[in-house]
C-alpha cells in the first residue's frame, strides 16, 4: 500500500485525543515557564541534550554510560569509545538542527538532510537505490517495505515539508501534527540509515518551531525506549488499519509524561544551582563569578581547560579554582591518565535519573 499524502482525510480529533492534547499542552507550557525562569538556561542544553542523545542512541543499541559520555566530552586521552562518539554525533545533529530552525522557524527537506548527514557522518542523501526494508529484529521477517522509488520519496518529502511548515494545510493541534509527522517520516524512511534518530530529532525541533518549547529539551526518546514494543507495533498498526487514535494517544501521552519529568529535572538543577551560588559566593568572595557557576553546570564533568576558556583566566588560576572547590566538597577530583577532571556529583546524580 502506498503512503498517503498529508493532510490526512480523517477526523483525528476524537474526544480522547483532545483531552490528552489539552493536558500535554499544559505540561509543555509549565516546562517552558520553568526553563525560562532560569536566567542562563542555555547552559542546560549541554547537560540535557546529552541525556536525550544517550537515550535516543540506545534504541539503535548504542549503549553508553553517563560516565563514558561525560568523559568523552572532556576529550582526554584514551576514552573515546565508539559508542560515546555516536552519541556525540547525535548531540551535534540536534544542535545543528536547532541552529538551522532558530532563525526562520521552518524545517525544510534540505535541513533534514543536513541533520541526518551530521548524525551519520555521510552524505548519501535521500535514498536513490532500492533495497531498503524494515525487519523484525527477532525473527528477521520483513515487516514493512518503504517506498523504493527515488522520485516518490522526493515527492513525499516535499509534501511532508509543506505539512510541517504551512499551517493553512491543516488546523490540527501541533501535538497531533507532530505525531503524524513522525509516523509519516518513519514510513517514508527517506534515508539509508539514521531514520529513527533523525525522526526523533525532528519531533523536538517541531515543538520549538511551534513555540511550545524554547530549547530542544524534551527527552521523548526515553519514553519510546521504555515503550519500545508498543512503539513498533503502533507504527505498523496505523499503516495496516488506518486507526490513528492509539498512535496519537501514545505519542501525546509521551510528550506529557516526559514534559512532567523534565520539569522536575530542571527544577532540581535550578535548586542545586542556587545552593551552589550562595555557598560559593559566601565562601570565596574573591573568585566567585556567574561564569564560574555556569561552567560547573554546563559540564557535569569539567576540566581545567574548560574553566580557563570560559573564564578567560590562566591555567594556574583555573586549576586553583577547581582544586579549591574539590577540596571543599563542591566537586570530586578524578584522574584519567595524566589529566585531572572534576565531577559535579550532585548534578550528575540529578541527570542520572
Ligand atoms: N513498521 C514500521 N513502520 C514504520 N517505521 C518503522 C517501522 N519499524 C521501524 N520503523 C522506524 O524505523 C526506525 C529505524 O530506522 P533506522 O534503522 O534507519 O534508524 P536508526 O536511527 O539508525 O535506528 P533507531 O531508530 O533504532 O535508533 C525506527 O526507530 C522506527 O521509527
TrEMBL record:
It holds the Pfam family Fic_N. It comes from the Bacteria. SUPFAM superfamilies: Fic-like. ATP binds at residues 60, 189, 193-200, 231-232. The active site is at residue 189. One of its GO terms (molecular function) is ATP binding. Residues 107-253 form the Fido domain. InterPro entries: Fic/DOC_N, Fido, Fido-like_dom_sf, Fido_containing, SoFic-like, SoFic-like_C, WH-like_DNA-bd_sf. Keywords: ATP-binding, Nucleotide-binding. PANTHER family: FIDO DOMAIN-CONTAINING PROTEIN DDB_G0283145, PROTEIN ADENYLYLTRANSFERASE SOFIC. This is MloA.
Amino acid at each position: 500500500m502506498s503512503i498517503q499524502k498529508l493532510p490526512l482525510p480523517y477526523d483525528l480529533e476524537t474526544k480522547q485525543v483532545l483531552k490528552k492534547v489539552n493536558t500535554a499542552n499544559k505540561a509543555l507550557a509549565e516546562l517552558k515557564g520553568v526553563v525560562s525562569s532560569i536566567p542562563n538556561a542555555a547552559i542546560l542544553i549541554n547537560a540535557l541534550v546529552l541525556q536525550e542523545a544517550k537515550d535516543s542512541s540506545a534504541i539503535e543499541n548504542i549503549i553508553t554510560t553517563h560516565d563514558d559520555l561525560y568523559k568523552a566530552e572532556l576529550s582526554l586521552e584514551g576514552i573515546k569509545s565508539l559508542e560515546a562518539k555516536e552519541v556525540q554525533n547525535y548531540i551535534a545533529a540536534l544542535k545543528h538542527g536547532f541552529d538551522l530552525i532558530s532563525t526562520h522557524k521552518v524545517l525544510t527537506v534540505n535541513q533534514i538532510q543536513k541533520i541526518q548527514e551530521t548524525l551519520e557522518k555521510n552524505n548519501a542523501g535521500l535514498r536513490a537505490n532500492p533495497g531498503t526494508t524494515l525487519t523484525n529484529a527477532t525473527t528477521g521477517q520483513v515487516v514493512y517495505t518503504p517506498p523504493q522509488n527515488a522520485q516518490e520519496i522526493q515527492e513525499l518529502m516535499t509534501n511532508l515539508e509543506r505539512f510541517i511548515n504551512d499551517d493553512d494545510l491543516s488546523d490540527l493541534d501541533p501535538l497531533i501534527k507532530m505525531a503524524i509527522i513522525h509516523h509519516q517520516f518513519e514510513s517514508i524512511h527517506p534515508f539509508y540509515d539514521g531514520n529513527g534518530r533523525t525522526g526523533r530529532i525532528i519531533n523536538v525541533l517541531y515543538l520549538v518551531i511551534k513555540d511550545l518549547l524554547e530549547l530542544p529539551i524534551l527527552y521523548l526518546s526515553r519514553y519510546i525506549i521504555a515503550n519500545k514494543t508498543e512503539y513498533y507495533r503502533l507504527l505498523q498498526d496505523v499503516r495496516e488499519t488506518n486507526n490513528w487514535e492509539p498512535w496519537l494517544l501514545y505519542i501525546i501521552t509521551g510528550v506529557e509524561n516526559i514534559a512532567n519529568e523534565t520539569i522536575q529535572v530542571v527544577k532540581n538543577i535550578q535548586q542545586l544551582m542556587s545552593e551552589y551560588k550562595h555557598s560559593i559566593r559566601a565562601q570565596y568572595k574573591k573568585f566567585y563569578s556567574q561564569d564560574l557557576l555556569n561552567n560547573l553546570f554546563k559540564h557535569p564533568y569539567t576540566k581545567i581547560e574548560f574553566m580557563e576558556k570560559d573564564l578567560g583566566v590562566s591555567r594556574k588560576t583555573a586549576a586553583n579554582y577547581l582544586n579549591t572547590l574539590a577540596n571543599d566538597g563542591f566537586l570530586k577530583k578524578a584522574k584519567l591518565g595524566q589529566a585531572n577532571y572534576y565531577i559535579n556529583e550532585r548534578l550528575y546524580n540529578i541527570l542520572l535519573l
